[in-house]
Amino acid sequence: MASSTPPLLLKKPVKLACVQLASGADKAANLQHAADKVREAAATGAKIVVLPECFNSPYGCDFFPSYAETLLPSPPTPEQSPSFHALAAMARDNNIYLIGGSIPELATDPTTQKKTYYNTSLTFSPTGDLLGTHRKIHLFDISIPNKITFKESDVLSPGNALTLIPLPDYGLVAVAICYDVRFPELATIAARRGCFALVYPGAFNTTTGPLHWRLLGQARAVDNQVYVALCSPARDMTAGYHAWGHSLVVDPMAEVLVEAGEGEAIVTAELNGERIEEARKGIPLRDQRRFDVYPDVSAAGPAGAEA
Ligand SMILES: NC(=O)CC(=O)C(=O)O
User: Fold this and answer.
1) Does the N-terminal or the C-terminal CB of the chain have fewer CB atoms within 10 Å?
2) Domain coordinates of the chain in residue numbers?
3) Residues 45, 53: contact at Cβ < 8 Å?
4) Candidate of 136, 138, 179 to mutate for ligand 1, largest count of ligand atoms within 8 Å of Cβ
5) pLDDT tens, position by position, 152-205
């Protein structure tokens, strides 16, 4: 019987851009600035453009409620979510897939009027249609004495679903947010379900960033033999939270293809499905797993919801 070559996870090469954006307190100005920078990123030939976590607001628990927008039912009105409509227009106007960082989301229970807040990422197609939504699953609750204490769960609720988004021209991409990158199971499940890239809008800080940001990007890439993109806000030392910056793209062999500094920047990298196959052929982890010794975390379970 003739053997057929399986299709590449990434159907054709694509340039991906991370926009390391400087944002401030003025949401309208942040949206306009994001639109300008996304246009700049698209002008480089990038067809997948990524924005950072909380790109339309400062990052912090004090800010989530006042910047939150209503996203459901979808599509929201422009009054409910100016960011939704701004992102859709950025994708459409530039003919790109836009992984729109994240924004604080407000969900109001229609019966009880109880308000719930999420940290939510929206991905749009080149026609401006919403392709997928990810609510940050793992909330950023840490306390490192004399360095940093942060407790997103004081205000936010966690999402409950893994997010795999089909980009019709390219293949499946997994989207998760910042602290989600620290949980290898999530990445492993997404990779075993066939994504070509793990994309994390994020905002590490000057304590954890230097130690863990690049390391985690490389770890998720080498574990799963896929591309990884981490997209941060630019550092602003006048803000309450000092983002690490250093947006980067890692290839399936864990080589850092490109990395920004601290300031505003657009970094781009060419992704190629052949590189994923080469990495997997050279180091055939997929065929060497011992599911007779440990369970396949991707086989079943509640994490299976997809966009
Ligand atoms: N901001 C985050 O969600 C995560 C972070 O800064 C870290 O894990 O460190």
Assistant:
1) N
2) 14-285+294-300
3) no
4) 179
5) 999 999 999 999 999 999 999 999 999 999 999 999 999 999 999 999 999 999
